[in-house]
Task: inverse folding
C-alpha cells in the first residue's frame, strides 16, 4: 500500500501576505487637538463608526 500523506513544513510558507493600495493625502487637520480626538491627522481617513454596514 502506498503512503500518499503530504506533510508541509510551516517554515516554507509565508505567515501572511498583504496588499495596501497607494494612498495620496492632500490635506491635514490644522487643529492638532481635533486630530488627536479623531485619531488621525488626515481628513480622508476620518471614517467614524456608525454601528452599521458601510454602503
Result:
Amino acid at each position: 500500500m502506498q503512503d500518499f500523506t503530504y506533510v508541509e513544513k510551516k517554515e516554507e510558507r509565508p505567515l501572511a501576505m498583504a496588499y495596501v493600495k497607494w494612498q495620496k493625502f492632500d490635506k491635514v487637520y490644522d487643529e492638532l487637538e481635533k486630530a488627536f480626538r479623531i485619531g488621525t491627522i488626515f481628513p480622508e481617513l476620518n471614517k467614524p463608526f456608525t454601528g452599521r454596514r458601510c454602503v
Residues 16-45 form one domain. The radius of gyration is 22 Å. The mean pLDDT is 80.
